[in-house]
Structures are given as C-alpha cells and as structure tokens.
Amino acid sequence: MQQGWLTKTFKGDRAIWGLVAIFMVYSLLAVYSSSASVAFIKYGGNTTYFLRSQFFMLLISLIIIVVVHYLPYRIYSSMAGLILLGAVVLLILTLFFGSTINEATRWLEIPGTGFMIQTSDLAKVALVIYLARSLAKYQYELNNFILVTKYFFVPVAVVCGLIFPENFSTALLIFGISMIIMFIGRIPFRFLLAYVGMAAAGVVLFGLVLTYVFHDSRVPVWIDRAEQFFSGKADEAGDYQSNQAKIAISTGGLFGKAPGRSTQRNMLPQSNSDFIFAIIIEEYGLLLGAIPLILAYMILLFRGITILKKCETAFPAFLVMGLIIMIVFQAMLNMLVAVGLLPVTGQTLPMVSWGRTSVLIMSFSIGVILSVSRVVNARIKKEELPEEEISDEGEKIYEQAKA
Fold first, then answer.
1. Separation of first and last alpha carbons in the chain
2. Its pTM surpasses 0.85
3. N or C: which end of the chain has fewer CB atoms below 10 A?
C-alpha cells in the first residue's frame, strides 16, 4: 500500500528522487555539524539554529519539487521571455535597492517578510530556461550570426553585466554555463569564440572604469586573488579560507574523523555553505564523503542525459540539458574550490550547502527535470501498452508530451 502511494506521489525518474534523498541527508548532517559552534555563539547557545533552518528549507524544497514535477513543462516555453524579463528587473532593483552583506550588494529583501533572495540565483535559472526556448525556436537558423547575437548573446551579456559589479564569480559562472549550453545546442564554435572575446574586452573595460573613474577597490582584490592562485603563492600570502579547507581535507583522510568531530569548522569561514565539502571530507573521509557525493552528481548528469535522449521535441531536451549542466557545473566548481584547484568563488554546493534562495532554486530545477521525465515515461509506457489498456491519465500526459 505504501509503495503504491509513493509511486503515485513521486513520479518521474526514480534514480533522481533517490539522489534528492541522498543530498538532503548529507545536507542535514553536514550543516548541523559544521555550524553548531557558530550557532552557539551567534544565537545564544542555540546549537540547532542552522539545523532547524536547513530542515525547514529542505522541507519546503521537497514540496516545491513535488508540485513543480506535476506541472506541464511546456508552460516554461511560453513564459521563457517573461521569466527572463522579471529576473532582469530584479537584478536592476538589487543594484539600486539591494541589501549589503559582507560589503557586497547581492540580496533583495521581500518587503514585510525579512526574507532576502539572492537575485543572481533566480536569473541563472531564468536564463537557462530562455536559452532552451531559443535553441528550440531557432534550431535551424543558428548559422546566422546576427540572429544568434540578438537572441542569445545579448540576453546573456545583460544578465552577466548586471551581476558582474557585485558578484564577479557568479557572473563568470553563468557566462560559462551559457557558453556550454550554446555549444551543445550546436551554435557554431567560431561564434562562441567571438562572444568570449567580446566578454573579455567588456570585463577589462569595466574594470578600468571601476578602478580609475569610481576608484573601486574590488578590481585590485580580484587581480590579487588571481595572481596569488596562478603564481602558487597562495600559502605564503595567507589565503586563509583555502588553507583551512586543505587542512580539513588532509586530516579527514580515507575514513574521516567521524560525524561531529571536525576541528576546522571552528576556523573555516562559510563552513556550512561555500566550504561544506571540505567539512564533509574531514568528518566522513574520502570513501564515505567525497566519492559518494561526486558519484551522486555524476549519476544526476547521466540520468539527465538519459531523459533528454528520450525527448521527442527540442525544448524539453534543451531544458533538461541546461538545468543539469547548471547544477552539475556548479557542484564541480564548488568541489574544485574546496580542494584548492580553483580560486575561491563563493559558490554553494547544490542541495547540500546551507542556504535559502539557492536551495529553493535548485529544488525548482530538479522539479522541472522530473516533470520532463514524468511525461517522457508516460509516453513510453503508453507506447508499450495495448491501446485498450491506456488510462485516461496516461492519454492526458501523452498529449502534454506532444505539446
């Protein structure tokens, strides 16, 4: 009885549902362990503050996944332009009226609630949906440089340009994801090289304006971080976050120190968000921490490819491709930063790090992927059944798949 209820409630790719459960278990364990001491100091001895906050957000995220995976994915095709426009408006509002935390204006507070959203996360998924729609719509006109520039590069440039002043790493991440999506979507490589050149020129020009016109101090900081990392002098220069993460990873070894016994959590800034992967390795080791998580994201990538190969139309295939690339690319970036292979970027580990907007956006993205999977599975099942055994619900879902 219970299995039947679960099957009826959680439809779509069962492997992805299993991965969601794995991510949530790792998230609760790691967030509680990595933030207990910080919560004790900041919240009057309440060591479970972040645990309760994350549990609440994961509960909401599960509801979002369930609700979204029941929605027909075709609605995102018709609303792609409007969704992107709304995201751009929010980015503009953030620049002028956003809340400043840690000397960066990246959050927009919802009036009357005290809840803050990081608008760059919203813009990231909005841009992926828009690119999926555009690739499907113009798939036979992608050799037209003017058209591709107008409907692909300009929207990407606008979004990244609005994010870049306050969050260089996120703007670079979104640009990289967009280039990968367009490359897989068969936009000519020479076009992408031209766009990369334009973007590089734009970054240099913007940096010069910030430095010499507005006397902004962030550009020298960005340059200094890059020089330290690529010159191999990060240890000598005292790259505190990266060094503490390396200590956590090296002391974790193969089997870890055991849950709750991390020592670097007391010294590593952002231990429950940006560097949670290092804490997971310290406590669970390579065998129970790092390898299972890496495999989980790789399996998610594989399942996404399996789903998009079953799609009959272009939009759902490009939609799944874009969202999977977004999730897995960010996860790999977070892990590479934690182990010291990339400079510090401030990107969270999807569905594992403590957070609000990032958790909700990633949950929405997984819900959309499962929505496509649900429809695809229903179509395949309908094709395999004799005509007289096809239910009304199956016929309805199949009609959605054809739309």
1. 34
2. yes
3. N
